């Protein structure tokens, strides 16, 4: 098999050693996807002769849903998606993962976008809910001749803590193509969450979870979902973990109390109420309340690692 270095060519209209799209993709897959049990590719196969576990999926909309579910349940933990399959893949990602048995949390996604369709495709990406749920995203824009023209990564920007709509910022990477193999294409995004708003459901259930509405504005450690003010004080063994996490990782907490329905219920169609229903319906990102490993919400949400014993 040819080495990557041996396949790099001098880029067009450039004095740098710009790799072809095929060379770049082989490098990205071998460097960043080799630790996964398997990955899925929708579109072209860039590692046809490579010793790496992968599943090739059709671009056909009618076949993709069932094939994607089977692939995930058989261990597909990362994805490479060429432009013809991007729309269908993003629309299927959440519902397919809801019913999948395998729940790998550390997923990565590489999207391949043609230069001529970049504007149209980026407009769709900026507001798609799936990109709220995947942090490790790399977008490779390439020309008709098969050369990468720009590389982008994603960040979630939220200007209003009460706004549920996703605003995805596509940040262009600055790459020295003379030294591109040493570039970090998937930077660590977890150490600084850039003020990400974590929508949190909870109820008063001492000593695990407790909240209090303060009269003094901006005196709390979380935002109130009713007023949008930082006027809620969270306490309890579980919520102290969350507060500490956001202090260390630069995120914000907005609280959605569920004292009336408390833990609530989740129905077969994915609707529900209370803590479990709020996560299943994606009204919130996470719920706290000394949960057991109940089966009913599992088709529409997942559980953290166990943090205490009852």
TrEMBL record:
Taxonomic superkingdom: Eukaryota
Name of the protein this chain belongs to: Ionotropic glutamate receptor L-glutamate and glycine-binding domain-containing protein
């Amino acid at each position: 098999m040819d080495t990557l270095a041996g396949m790099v060519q001098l880029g067009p209209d450039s004095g740098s050693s710009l790799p072809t799209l095929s060379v770049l993709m082989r490098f990205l897959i071998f460097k960043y996807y080799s630790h996964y049990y398997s990955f899925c590719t929708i579109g072209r196969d860039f590692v046809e002769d490579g010793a790496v576990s992968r599943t090739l999926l059709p671009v056909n909309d009618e076949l993709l849903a069932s094939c994607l579910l089977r692939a995930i349940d058989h261990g597909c933990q990362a994805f490479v998606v060429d432009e013809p399959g991007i729309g269908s893949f993003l629309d299927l990602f959440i519902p397919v993962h809801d019913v999948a048995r395998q729940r790998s949390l550390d997923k990565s996604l590489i999207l391949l976008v043609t230069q001529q369709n970049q504007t149209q495709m980026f407009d769709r990406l900026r507001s798609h809910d799936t990109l709220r749920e995947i942090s490790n995203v790399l977008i490779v824009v390439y020309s008709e001749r098969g050369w990468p023209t720009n590389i982008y990564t994603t960040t979630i920007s939220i200007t209003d803590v009460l706004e549920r709509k996703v605003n995805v910022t596509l940040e262009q990477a600055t790459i020295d193509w003379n030294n591109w193999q040493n570039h970090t294409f998937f930077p660590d995004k977890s150490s600084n969450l850039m003020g990400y708003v974590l929508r949190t459901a909870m109820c008063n259930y001492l000593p695990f979870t407790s909240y209090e509405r303060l009269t003094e504005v901006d005196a709390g450690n979380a935002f109130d979902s009713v007023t949008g003010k930082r006027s809620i004080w969270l306490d309890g063994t579980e919520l102290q973990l969350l507060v500490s996490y956001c202090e260390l990782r630069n995120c914000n907490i907005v609280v959605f109390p569920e004292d009336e329905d408390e833990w609530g219920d989740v129905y077969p169609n994915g609707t529900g109420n209370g803590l479990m229903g709020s996560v299943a319906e994606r009204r919130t990102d996470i719920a706290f309340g000394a949960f057991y490993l109940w089966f009913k919400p599992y088709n529409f949400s997942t559980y953290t690692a166990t943090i205490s014993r009852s």
